[in-house]
Amino acid sequence: MASSDLSLTHAEAKVLSAFNYPYPPGFLCPPGWSLSAGGVPIFPGPQAASRRATVTHHYYVELTLEQLMDRRWDPDYATTWDAFFANRHDMELARYEGDGPPPVDNNEVGRRLWWGSRTFEGVMNHILAGENPPHVFFDSASVNVRAYRGDPISSAPPPSFPFSWIPLRTPAKTLKGPPEAGEWVVTKALIERGFSLPPSDFFTEIPKAYQLQPHNISPNSILAISNHVTLCEGHLRVTPDLSLFQYYFSVKKEKVSQTSSLATCGSITFKLRPDRIYPHTDCHESVWYWSGGFFYLKDVSDPASSKVLPEFKDGPASETPTWSQCPHLSKSPQLTRAIRRICKLTEDGLSGKDLNMSWFTKRIQPLQHRDRLMCHYTGRYNLMRTSKDNLSVDALDKRIQVLIKIPRDLHQMWLDRVPLLT
Prior knowledge:
mainly alpha; two-stranded antiparallel sheet; 14 helices; disordered C terminus; Transposase_28; Transposase (putative) gypsy type domain-containing protein
């Protein structure tokens, strides 16, 4: 095991916590750590300077206007934030994802069943190898196996989203014949800007609402959607909402040169509405290569789910009333609050480049299905990532400049920030 005194290090416990794996029975927790009702190690919470940074960068922007006017919610008012983090810690300790009441003794029976003949080194090596397929978790209440992020054991039910294997088929130089059942035509430019299959629930709402195919959406619009998802999940810490997106973005029809017909690839572009206070992204005016570099990609979403892409159809999009739709603020207090928070973040300096760098450096595809929000990202071995390997500074520099414009006088500053963002 990890050490002779039957105690894991902080780093080892942090990895288990990040992957929501149970703590090995018989081992002592690192100082300050505890076990949840389900047996997962729980971090004691940020302390000292790191706690203030956590408050100002994440939780402070969630406060209501009334709380912001109350000095007791100031980032340096220890009494309020002591209670806040203590409450969060209590909620984490009570967490149990099995059926029925929480087990006793921090799920010791379930932890013993889970670890069985596994070793700590074996579990760490499995994570380092990409956690493919992910391990399963035991429910001690019924001593049955329940699928957890995957299913390497034949007695467990099949997972709904088999992320570990997404088949793709590269066509010849010219598209010959329609895609096979369940396949979509995807281009390299869309993947670079955050789109992947299986799609996120939010992204499936957009083709449905606007009657679009993925290839009908221009690359810069895919980037705008990815950054909007990052803004909602990473900074507002909320699930993206279509009404909020429609409040900020209008539809611009893209027509074939010198005709009145909509283009097939890139029928529409989502443009930021005038006078909206929102993080600005300085995109390239055109993505000249985007209609090339295509391939067929099979969607492996749960067939029983309603959150799926529409059946593939070649051709341009057809205009619908939703293309001119804009929600009224009076009908949604939640929408009004989100807009106020975005305004505050933007005035405080949050830019589209910040949003872009956030998901890009962490190697997250914002428009791909995930089981949790980006605000729960924990580090290099988090399952949100498409790869545990970070891009080199040179590789990231070349790729990010394909997506957005970075002024020469700011270029080196962005490169210096890369190690802080991953």
